């Protein structure tokens, strides 16, 4: 990072350093990627990758956009298959969810707000 308040990076490389997260409250306060308003994740998932446990009691709203591959979002009453670049899904606070990569997939997730101390493992 330079001292001019500008950060230039590569999503895949930077994502590998912090479980995929590129922006959020968990970045250093002096880093331009620090935000209490939202979080952004660059998720790279091999075929067959899936969330080990459902996220329950989500405190944020989220948007997930398919960059490449075939990715399945699971919700209590439905599944959503993202299969064309640009397909996306939005879910709100309190919506339990899980996911599965039907093919090797890259997804971009935006969550808001960025909640200090909250982490869905």
From TrEMBL:
Q: Which domain of life is it from?
A: Bacteria
SUPFAM superfamilies on file = RmlC-like cupins (SSF51182)
- The protein in question is named Signal peptidase I
Give the originating organism. Streptomyces silvae
Q: What is the lineage of its organism?
A: Bacteria, Bacillati, Actinomycetota, Actinomycetes, Kitasatosporales
